[in-house]
Amino acid sequence: MRTAKRIENLPPYLFAEIDRKKEAKQAEGVDVISLGIGDPDRPTPKRILDAMADAIQNPTNHRYPSYAGSKQYREACAEWANRRFGLELDPATEVLALIGSKEGIAHLFPAFVDVGDYTLVPGVGYPVYHTGGILVGGKTHWMPMNDSNDWLADFDSTPADVLANAKMMFLSYPNNPSSAIAPVEYFDRAIAFCKQHDILLVHDNAYSEIGFDGYKASALLERPGARDVAIELFSCSKAYNMTGWRIAFACGNAEAIKALGTVKSNIDSGAFTAVQDAAIEAMLGPQDDVAEMSALYQNRRDLVMDALGSVGLSARCPKGTIYVWAKIPDGYTSAEYASEILDKAGVIVPPGSAYGPDGEGYIRISLTTPDDRLVQALERIREEL
Ligand SMILES: Cc1ncc(COP(=O)(O)O)c(C=O)c1O
Question: Cβ neighbours of residue 159 under 8 Å, at least 6 residues apart?
Answer without folding.
Answer: 141
